[in-house]
């Protein structure tokens, strides 16, 4: 039988339990970490500041962070437009270099078309206007007055009756065709149809206004200044050099019968207005002219409004003699405009379809003619 020997190891009371020793070491380490973190003066804030600084683009030639400034410039452009970019950002976001931002930018186009000025004589604002339902109209007019006589109590009474005439006014057609590519209408960022319609209306207005002033009546209205009508007007002749212009204007004003003069308007172009204005400023009769005090209100000469008509001749020494640069009259009594068909605009998608063309067709039927020559007086520029 084998004898087992047991070795007993004893500990003194002063020995420390290993578990307790580990716990004590861990507590000490935790305290040490807390102390060091407190000594680092808010390390989280410092790390945030360092990160922001690292993302900030460097200036000058030493900029190694071009991707960041390009991103910032592109972001600014997309949010606020090109006007918000500073010089460095504009240089970085080079629209001429696609990789530097050109793909993200596009030119800007205005949807407003700059139009040339269209001037026309405002005959419709001073003449008489009526609508008709046929191709022509006959307007009766008195040719001669009736004439009574003084009689005695039992004497014979004279017999008299007026005579009449009539004025025939035809309606003439004014038309145009505007061919436009179908694809241009579809792809244009401008409303081409509305633009063309507005242009047609203005050009038709100009054409008819010119005809009302100088038209010869051949396929168009007969203007009040056509050469065939001049002999029927009351005329005052002024020196072509303009030496007696003011006096002749006063004479012209009082050559018109009072009933017409009370409703009369002056008609002249802008250059003639300037000549008259300058002549009045250098004389004692400057108060005859009164400038307009509000937009849309015409200037007046001797108390009557001035209609600016660019289709009338200039009054200037360089202009040939035998011209009629100024008219004064009651145009509502003297000139008649007749409207048969207003401006009609039609889109034709078919007749030009084989070639991809859309035709904008427009037409207008209108007429005009002098009906009473005694209601208008003319100033003639010539050697008296």
Automatic annotation (TrEMBL):
Task: Using the record's annotation, list all stretches that form the Phage capsid-like C-terminal domain.
Answer: 101-380
**SUPFAM superfamilies, A to Z:** Major capsid protein gp5 (SSF56563)
Give its localization: Virion
- Which domain of life does this protein belong to? Bacteria
- This protein's name: Phage major capsid protein, HK97 family
**Which species?**
Rhizobium mesoamericanum STM3625
């Amino acid at each position: 039988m084998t004898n087992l020997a047991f070795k007993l190891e004893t500990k003194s009371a002063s020995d420390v339990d290993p578990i307790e020793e580990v716990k004590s070491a861990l507590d000490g380490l935790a305290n040490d970490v807390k102390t060091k973190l407190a000594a680092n003066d808010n390390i989280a804030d410092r790390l945030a500041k360092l990160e922001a600084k690292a993302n900030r683009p460097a200036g000058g030639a030493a900029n190694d962070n071009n991707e960041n400034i390009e991103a910032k410039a592109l972001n600014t452009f997309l949010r606020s437009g090109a006007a918000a970019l500073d010089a460095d950002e504009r240089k970085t976001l080079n629209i001429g270099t696609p990789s530097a931002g050109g793909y993200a930018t596009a030119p800007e186009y205005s949807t407003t078309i700059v139009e040339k000025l269209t001037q026309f004589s405002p005959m419709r604002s001073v003449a008489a206007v009526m609508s008709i339902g046929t191709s022509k109209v006959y307007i009766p007019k008195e040719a001669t007055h009736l004439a009574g006589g003084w009689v005695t109590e039992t004497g014979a009474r004279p017999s008299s009756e007026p005579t009449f005439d009539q004025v025939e006014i035809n309606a003439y057609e004014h038309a145009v065709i505007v061919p436009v590519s179908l694809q241009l209408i579809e792809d244009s960022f401008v409303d081409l149809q509305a633009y063309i319609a507005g242009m047609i209306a203005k050009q038709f207005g100009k054409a008819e206004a010119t005809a009302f002033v100088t038209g010869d009546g051949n396929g168009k209205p007969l203007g009040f200044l056509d050469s065939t009508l001049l002999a029927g007007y009351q005329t005052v002749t002024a020196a072509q050099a303009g030496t007696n212009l003011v006096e002749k204007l006063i004479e012209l004003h009082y050559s018109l019968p009072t009933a017409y003069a009370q409703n009369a308007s002056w008609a002249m172009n802008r250059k003639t207005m300037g000549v008259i204005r300058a002549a009045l400023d250098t004389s004692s009769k400057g108060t005859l002219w009164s400038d307009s005090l509000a937009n849309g209100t015409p200037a007046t000469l001797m108390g009557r409004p001035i209609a600016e008509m660019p289709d009338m001749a200039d009054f200037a020494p360089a202009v040939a003699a035998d011209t009629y640069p100024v008219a004064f009259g009651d145009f509502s009594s003297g000139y008649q405009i007749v409207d048969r068909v207003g401006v009609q605009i039609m889109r034709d998608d078919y007749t030009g379809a084989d070639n991809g063309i859309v035709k904008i067709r427009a037409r207008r039927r209108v007429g005009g003619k002098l009906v009473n020559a005694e209601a208008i007086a003319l100033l003639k520029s010539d050697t008296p």
